[in-house]
Amino acid sequence: MTQQSERGAQSQPMTRPLEGVPLPELERVPDYERGFWEGTQAGELRIQRCSACGLFRHLPTPMCPECSSLDYEWTTVSGRGFVYSYVIVRHPVHQAIREKEQTPYNVCVIELEEQADLRICSNVLHMAPEDISIDMPVRATFVPASDDPGVVLPVFIPVAQS
Amino acid sequence: MTPNIIPADTNGIRDKAAIVGIGETEFSWDSGRSELQLASEAIKAACDDAGIAPQDIDGLIRYDMESNHETLLTQSLGIKNLRHWESVSYGGGAGNAVVGHAAAAIAAGYANYVVCFRAANLRSGVRLGRARGPELIPGGADSFAVPWGSMAPAHRFGMFVRRYMHDYGATSRHFGWVAVTLREHASRNPRALRRDPITIDDHQNSRMVVDPLHVLDFCQENDGAAAIVITTAERARELRHSGTLTLIEAAAQGSGPRNDGIIYRPDLAVAESEHTARDLWARARLDASDMDALMFYDHFTPFCLINLETYGFVPRGEAKDFVDGGGNIRFDGALPTNTHGGNHSEAYIHGLTHVQEAVRLIRGTSTAQPPHKTINRALSCSSVAQLSGAVIIRRG
Ligand SMILES: [Zn+2]
């Protein structure tokens, strides 16, 4: 996936997640994170939710930061949200990104519609970097990582295109 | 239940401790020597400046990131009995915090001469700006960021900056004025690594590394070491710089909520150091208008604007106007800021050089000494995302 990287020129959209980057080792992730990855394997975005007070939380943690309950469940959310912030990475800092010429790429913070401030880090596909903007509505889709298909990555696409 | 606030009269370190010595190695891209060598040289220089011998040191406060542990240093420095030692986590978050800890140790009587230091080959050794190797991620914040390509500090802080620009209308050009001004300060500083003046156009035309951050928005990655000697105010009156006491008036650290991974904080455009600032001013019973100079942790230029607002130098959203054109933050302006050139142009020693420059400004020995006013108080404040620290240095 060679992408144009000259400044000023319209850059190509990302069409799939990055290749060759480190991935979580699912056998070693803590119990309180595993439900997220089991969800993506099932094609669902599951977010940790407090069983006592109903608060969603991400990053996953053992305890509810609001009511201190240790009980939680994995709740499937709609996958709809909007771009809260983003960067366009033009200079590769990782060998695989440099060697496979995967710049530019975007990293976005997506705020999910279920709860204010509920955010996850991801990419927006099928959108030229210059066209990504804050508040842009997006929805989740799921792509197995090319280096470990057991790890399924949630990524986002613009709602207008879906 | 008692509210979780700091009572305004709680400042157990007020004026108890003084910075009596500052020292550093040369700053370089490749020091060609070990981190223990760098630490020993910087600490010796700081002791020389104070007028004490390294053997007099009985307290050491280092960064968690530091490779020079206490046993190595007691051996190298000839310390007879290390009465007190600590390490403070993070890089930018530990800057200033180590000085606050030292003041507390002095106030408590745990040691007579405490040294804070940072020594690292951050350029010729392991570089912080590079992604870690291809190792697998067992979980935690990285596992929810790295697979999507968020793998370096600039990626996370860039999210912060983008949101700040969106909410308050700051532009890259405003950040450019910070770069131009810091470089001008560095051009007067023979210690500085980058001394060639730049223009606003140089900044705007510089390579976009992580949009919205140009390469001239980044701090440097370099080798070098810096050290600070702290003792009681009473002892300071007997030492070499007895004519100009530089007292530690107040210090604070803070986290804010949900700071792991940086991007999950409730309002990404607002710095967590607002918590640090609130406690600092309450403890000191001062506010920004009492400060004659600002030394802020400039890992990226936009954090000049964010620090100005967080610590109350200007109302939120107005820093872009304050820094525009650079005049206000120049050494001869309303608020002399990073007169050494900062992490941006002098050297990146994780914020310790900022405290050193505050001391120089009060002594009157900065290479960009403000010609128009005496510096009686300076604020040095560190990193404004994740954990942060701040310290007020005043003329005794
Ligand atoms: Zn709860």
Task: Give a quick summary of the entry.
The complex is a heterodimer of chains A (162) and B (396). Chain A has 162 residues and is mainly beta.
Topology (SSEs and partners):
The complex is a heterodimer of chains A (162) and B (396).
Chain A: H1 31-41, E1 45-50, E2 56-57, E3 72-77, E4 80-89, H2 95-99, E5 105-112, E6 119-122, E7 137-145, E8 148-158
Antiparallel strand pairs in A: 1-2, 1-3, 4-5, 4-7, 5-6, 7-8
Chain B: E1 17-24, H1 35-50, E2 59-63, H2 70-77, E3 84-88, H3 97-108, E4 114-121, H4 153-168, H5 172-187, H6 200-205, E5 208-211, E6 213-214, E7 223-232, H7 233-236, E8 246-254, H8 273-284, E9 293-296, H9 302-310, H10 319-323, H11 342-345, H12 352-363, E10 377-381, E11 388-395
Parallel strand pairs in B: 2-3, 2-4, 9-10
Antiparallel strand pairs in B: 1-7, 4-7, 5-6, 8-11, 10-11
Bound molecules: zinc ion.
